[in-house]
Amino acid sequence: MGVVFYRLWACLGVVACVGIGNSGVAHAQEATWVQLAARPNLTQMEAQASEFEQRLGAVRGYALPSGWFALSLGPQDRTVSERMLQDLSRAGTIPADAFISDGGTYRSQVWPPNGAAAVQPQTNFAAVATPNTTQQPLGVLADETTEQAGISEKALSNEDRRDLQRALRWFNVYDGSIDGLFGPGTRQSMGDWQRQNGYPTTGILTSQQRSVLLDRHTSERAELGLERLVDEQAGISVDLPTGLVSFDRYDAPFVHYTSRDGSGVEVMLISQPGDRAMLAGLYDVLQTLEIIPITGYRKLEDNRFVLMGSNATRQSYAYAETGGGEVKGFILLWPADDLAQRDRVLTQMRASFTPLRGAVLSPQDRPDRANSRDQLAGLDIRRPLRSGAGFFIDRDGYVLTSAALTTGCARLTGPDDIAFTQVADDPALGLSLLRPSAPLVPLSVAQFTPTLPFTGAEVAVAGFPYGGRLDFASLTYGQFEEAVDLGGDPSRSRLSVKTDPEDMGGPVLTDTGAVVGMLLKAGTASGDSRVLPDDVRLSLNTAAVLPFLRTAGRQITEATGAGDGSPEALYDIARDMTVQVACWR
Predict the structure, then answer these.
(1) Whole-angstrom Cα distance, residue 330 to residue 251?
(2) Rounded to a whole number, what is the distance in angstroms from the first to the last CA of the chain?
(3) What is the largest CA-CA distance in the chain?
(4) 135 part of a folded domain
(5) I want to staple 559 with a disulfide (CB 3.0 to 4.6 A). Which of 252, 262, 403, 449 is the partner?
(6) Is residue 136 part of a domain?
(7) 323: closest CA among 272, 268, 254?
(8) Which of 444, 415, 446 is nearest to 518 (CA)?
């Protein structure tokens, strides 16, 4: 069958004619293309382009942002594109899902291959000559009336109707069943889509509107490379945006899909054995990961959970469910911009997600690497900006700590991630008083004494050394050296003890468990920029602490000397009153 080339021109109402000169370059008021297909790589695109050119003549290939490639005819005026699409579709010479594109997603031209960048776009296009086909004069295509739209809608097949529902769901105006039944829900969604796109809101799509809806749906899916993935090893079937992510590795309980071509999008499939208890544990663990922002919607139900997070750079969505002794789900990470596109991908992933029972990832599906407290299956666990110690000062769970620990924190947390609110501080003294957001029942509270130990007496500092890796406070022993600091400040005492930064804010105790001070930040003397020796530490004396607490309206417990002086008894007292305080960005 031969190839017939012909030139087009049209005059639209009072608008000046769109002419085609000898150069073949269209001077159109609105450049459009008839997009024939999209292919995931150059090899497939070139093969398809050659096939189209044999039938249609000049075809252009353009790179898309997703990494795919579009094959198109054009550019030309929209009315010419509409007629071109109509004629070639009627002749059956182009794919049924071809559509009109405004070229907004077209990047560099990559076809034809010989000097593609310098090739001027042509308005000539080829159509296959078909028997008894009469070319109709070009003009503005009139849309249907609502009555005509209803008649044309009745001619749709059930699959055509389901396609429309899928497209409406893609644009987040429909959340009902894909059943091909146009009930009130579907009608409402059609009206919503019409309103969003500037059409009269009738709830019945015209043929033209149906074409626009389906074309946009097809175009966006092609750019994203949405494909059904069936992972038999993980036991999951789901639609993934393969234009934005690519498979990286198995790392139980995750299957990692990393960002493709700088898209910033990541996907992790979740697959592991487990029941409701395991689901709840996963819910807690995921919230400790650096990839999940700390603010956002969270909901844990009996057999499923949803975790959403957002910050200035990232949006996260995590879903998991349990059934048949398995826990399956997925995590979608998306850049903070283009959330409308994120919502469409997420809607598709949620609608298509299907656990395939009988297959889960196991510990063998994990790279050979050393275990790390700072990671879970290769993902970084969120760590605070800094952490230190504090101690209960009353039965209401109020905690006294160092102002150097709490300064500049967006969030403060204590035991079991309970949030703390700073209710009083004194930067000059270096004190900060925290109130728990939920009721706390301390096992022990500080018993204060203003009487300082004698020089050379043994004291102990309770805190969280070793980077805060221990769940309970540790005691570090040293000596009381002087009742003033190196600058002569009587509110501070000098100790000889080697502590870690995470001990800052912890209580300084006598052998009977009485609190004689609070450990200050190590490093320099009061009002002095010189670095202190490694074993020199400063403690804020109880005599300076008590007025601060009374001003804040807190009740004070005085020391009774209840401890028997044994290391075991002292440790029990310190452990029960000392808490770890974390400062988060």
Answers:
(1) 14
(2) 69
(3) 113
(4) no
(5) 449
(6) no
(7) 272
(8) 446
> Distance (Å, rounded) from C-alpha 129 to C-alpha 142?
26
What is the predicted pLDDT for the residue at 377?
Answer: 60
Where residue 565 sits, what CATH number does that domain have? 2.40.10.120
Both 422 and 570 in one domain: the answer is: yes
What's the domain count of the chain?
4
User: Can you tell me the distance from the alpha carbon of 88 to that of 92, in angstroms, rounded to the nearest whole number?
Assistant: 6
What string of DSSP letters covers 361-430? --TTSS------TTEETTEEBP--SEEEEEEE-STT--EEEEHHHHTT-SEEE-GGG-EEEEEEEETTTT
Spatial separation of the C-alpha atoms in residues 21 and 6, rounded to whole Å: 13
Range of the domain at 195: 146-209
Tell me, yes or no, whether 218 lies in a domain: no
Q: Are strands 492-496 and 431-436 parallel, antiparallel or unpaired?
A: unpaired
pLDDT tens digits, 25-48:
333 357 888 999 888 777 778 888
Predicted local confidence at residue 9, as pLDDT: 26
Both 433 and 339 in a single domain? no
Would you state the torsion angle of the CA atoms of residues 485, 487, 488, 490, taken in this order, to the nearest 10 degrees?
-50
Q: Give the whole-angstrom CA distance, residue 147 versus residue 169.
A: 25
Per residue in 70-126, pLDDT tens? 899 988 888 888 888 888 888 778 888 788 888 888 878 888 875 443 333 333 333
- From the CA atom positions of the chain, what is the Rg in Å? 35
Contacts of 551 (CB under 8 A, 6+ apart): 424
Identify the segments of the chain with pLDDT beneath 50.
1-28, 115-141, 370, 375, 524, 526
Helix-strand-coil percent breakdown of the chain, rounded to 5?
A: 25, 30, 45
Residue with tokens 């995921």: 286
Residues 48, 29: one domain? Answer: yes
Q: Please state, in angstroms and rounded to a whole number, the distance separating the CA atoms of residues 516 and 559.
A: 10
Looking at residue 76, its pLDDT comes to: 86
Please report, for the domain that includes residue 269, its CATH number. 3.40.1000.10
